[in-house]
Input
Amino acid sequence: MARAAKHRHVAGGGYARGEETRARIVSAALRLFGERGFDGASTRDIAAGAGVNAPALQYYFDSKEGVYVACVEHIVKRVWESMSGVIDDAERRAAENADDAALIETYCEIQVQLCRFMFTSEEAEVGRLFMARLQSGEGPPAGFQSIYQHISSRMSIALSTILGRLLGLPAEDEETLVRSAMLTGQLHVFHVSQHSVLTQLKWDRIDERRLNLLVRLVREHTATLLRAMVKSRDSANTVHALHGKRPASRIKKKVAAGRH
Output
């Protein structure tokens, strides 16, 4: 697996200049990888966009793949700075066996925070096309593996754990995972397919008023769907109780069905 090259700097106060150069290269690469894809963005063009000579890329990152992984690591850092608080809270509430209302509120907070990051962060806007390409499978596998291991995996586990509780299903159940992907997809369509969605809405951009509308509706949709799932779970448990069965029978049936 490729990794971004270690930070290199020269003695005598060169560290700050080295970090500045490295940051310029990453910024230029994010834009060009997003616009042209990994294969279409040459190291020469990235260097020109960063205002450095081509050998500087090899000096700081070893290869074009190293630059790409550095771009992913940059996004990972910015996303985690924004999302770590709500993910930590979700993990804590799940561990404490919080009630349904608290779990629903926590799930909604993750959705809201993700929405705000997507449309208020400069890094998110610069990296929007880059992330769309990465999630579609373009680019070196090391890039996707890096972002999945550091963010997507932990966020997915937190969301599916909460959702599984609300559904009365295991976190790793196929239905739980599909429903979780559908809920998060409310946001992704506005981010990854932004041009077509904005055109349909006749919006020129997502300003503060429109962002507040998105946040309100994402929270409303998410909470409504989660409450409906809880109601369905409780209804199923009531039926099971009336027939002298344990509430967990739904889980057992789904596990047994998966074996056939």
Notes: Residues 1-5, 9-15, 248-260 have pLDDT under 50 and may be disordered. The chain has twelve helices and no strands. The radius of gyration is 22 Å. Residues 208-242 form the longest helix (35 residues).
